[in-house]
Q: What sequence folds into this?
């Protein structure tokens, strides 16, 4: 297996009906073997039924159920099930285009990178979130000495060797920063690909005010640990 893409999903039934056909179509253009692993993270809507139906139409799709809630927990579960030499994840909310995922894949393989990710040029979640995001990224770059512009930008792709070497532990939203921190400290080549995002067509974001405090707490913990 060449490429495994993980899609963490909690109550994203309607979005998955749009995403999976587009994702499968985009990945088919790579010309390499691939798999799509959707992690149903304790959904209470029709996600399970939707995945069961879609898996009959798209052979590359398989799903796993993870009852323990948490963005990072769902991703780690999916990555542990992955068979590809190149791994990654994309949100289920249709804000990121599958074609951009393919662009990131080609950048990673062509430039012999270890980590390659999206950098969002625009946001559709309000001025408050925009201000928080700008402040957070600025502070993160100072604290950890990284040049990455959009720390939490997704999709994120990386090699299987890096995933095992980095020993990613975050079970929450801090999985994005942890990947960047560890790649930076290991001195591995990283890059960003600029993308435009779309408005979420269905459902609501899983990111809440509590998530901001969660980020800040984890940043301080990691910063102290690395010192």
A:
């Amino acid at each position: 297996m060449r490429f495994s893409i993980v899609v963490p999903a909690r109550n994203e039934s309607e979005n998955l009906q749009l995403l999976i056909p587009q994702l499968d179509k985009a990945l088919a253009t790579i010309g390499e073997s691939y798999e799509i692993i959707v992690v149903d993270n304790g959904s209470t809507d029709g996600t399970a039924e939707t995945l069961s139906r879609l898996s009959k139409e798209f052979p590359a799709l398989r799903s796993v159920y993870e009852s323990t809630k948490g963005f990072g927990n769902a991703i780690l579960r999916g990555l542990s099930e992955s068979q590809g030499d190149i791994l990654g994840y994309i949100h289920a909310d249709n804000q990121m285009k599958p074609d951009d995922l393919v662009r990131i894949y080609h950048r990673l393989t062509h430039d012999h990178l270890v980590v390659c990710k999206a950098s969002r040029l625009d946001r559709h979640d309000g001025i408050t979130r925009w201000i928080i995001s700008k402040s957070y990224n600025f502070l993160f770059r100072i604290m950890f000495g990284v040049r990455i512009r959009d720390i939490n930008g997704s999709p994120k792709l990386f090699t299987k060797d890096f995933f095992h070497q980095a020993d990613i532990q975050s079970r929450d939203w801090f999985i994005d920063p942890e990947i960047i921190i560890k790649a930076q400290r290991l001195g591995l080549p990283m890059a960003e690909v600029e993308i435009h995002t779309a408005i979420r067509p269905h459902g609501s974001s899983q990111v809440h005010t509590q998530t901001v405090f969660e980020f800040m707490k984890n940043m301080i913990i990691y910063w102290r640990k690395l010192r």
In short: The longest strand covers residues 3-9. Strands lie at 3-9, 34-40, 61-65, 86-89, 115-120, 156-159, 190-195.
